[in-house]
């Protein structure tokens, strides 16, 4: 039996590299995947690939920073029977490569404000329905960690730390209602870097060099682990981070 048979899962930012990989993995494991994002054409491309592989996918233009849009979409999904999984993977608008001493305040604070706002909105929308069901999984991506020395990452790490604080509070408040909250951490996924990204080769070498297995996590790895964590096989996992870093991150 597939891991997510009969489940309804929302993936925000589903047109992105990580979001589309997670959505595909959820669909492969039997979930009906609701792809949410701001660009419908790109979402339809992802949905087309999922359907071509025998999966079930629906799309909706949703700005995950818009309170009303998030709530209405979650309500619509729940009206289909249930809202079982929520995974927010939208981009945070972070600026990387600029030293903090040279960075504009707006560029530094953008990923922090974006991450906190969108995760709060989507987690709250899901929790309202999952509480009634007595079950559900809210997944986060990133995790806190040590400062990055090799490359300036702006406010991104601050955003991840903020999300971890939120995840711990969500776990404490939602656990009694049967709702699990788990963060996936990777230590970096070279596949998501565009070929022309400044310093791409050096960044990839740094990511791989920190691993214990001599290879970095792939998008397929992240999707597979996310599907397991979202499933009832992981029903004892909450208030936790899942390390998908090939040993680059040591808890």
TrEMBL record:
<keyword id="KW-0560">Oxidoreductase</keyword>
<dbReference type="Pfam" id="PF13561">
    <property type="entry name" value="adh_short_C2"/>
</dbReference>
<dbReference type="InterPro" id="IPR051122">
    <property type="entry name" value="SDR_DHRS6-like"/>
</dbReference>
<dbReference type="GO" id="GO:0016491">
    <property type="term" value="F:oxidoreductase activity"/>
</dbReference>
<dbReference type="InterPro" id="IPR036291">
    <property type="entry name" value="NAD(P)-bd_dom_sf"/>
</dbReference>
<protein>
    <submittedName>
        <fullName>SDR family oxidoreductase</fullName>
    </submittedName>
</protein>
<comment type="similarity">
    <text>Belongs to the short-chain dehydrogenases/reductases (SDR) family.</text>
</comment>
<dbReference type="InterPro" id="IPR002347">
    <property type="entry name" value="SDR_fam"/>
</dbReference>
């Amino acid at each position: 039996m597939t891991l997510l048979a009969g489940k309804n899962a929302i993936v925000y930012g589903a047109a992105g590299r990580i979001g589309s990989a997670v959505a595909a993995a959820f669909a492969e494991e039997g979930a009906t995947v609701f792809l949410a994002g701001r660009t419908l054409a790109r979402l339809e491309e992802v949905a087309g690939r999922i359907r071509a592989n025998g999966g079930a996918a629906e799309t909706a233009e949703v700005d995950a920073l818009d309170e009303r849009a998030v709530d209405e979409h979650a309500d619509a999904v729940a009206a289909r029977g249930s809202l079982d999984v929520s995974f927010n993977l939208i981009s945070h608008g972070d600026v990387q490569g600029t030293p903090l001493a040279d960075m504009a305040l707006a560029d530094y604070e953008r990923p922090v404000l974006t991450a906190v706002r969108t995760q709060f909105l989507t987690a709250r929308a899901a929790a309202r329905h999952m509480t009634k069901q007595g079950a559900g999984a809210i997944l986060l991506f990133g995790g806190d960690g040590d400062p990055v020395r090799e490359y300036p990452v702006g406010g991104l790490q601050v955003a991840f730390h903020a999300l971890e604080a939120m995840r711990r509070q969500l776990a404490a408040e939602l656990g009694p209602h049967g709702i699990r909250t788990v963060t996936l951490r990777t230590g970096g996924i070279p596949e998501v870097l565009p070929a022309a990204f400044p310093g791409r080769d050096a960044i990839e070498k740094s990511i791989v060099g920190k691993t214990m297995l001599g290879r970095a996590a792939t998008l397929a790895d992240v999707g597979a682990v996310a599907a397991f964590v979202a499933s009832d096989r992981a029903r004892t996992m909450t208030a936790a981070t899942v390390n998908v870093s090939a040993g680059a991150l040591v808890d």
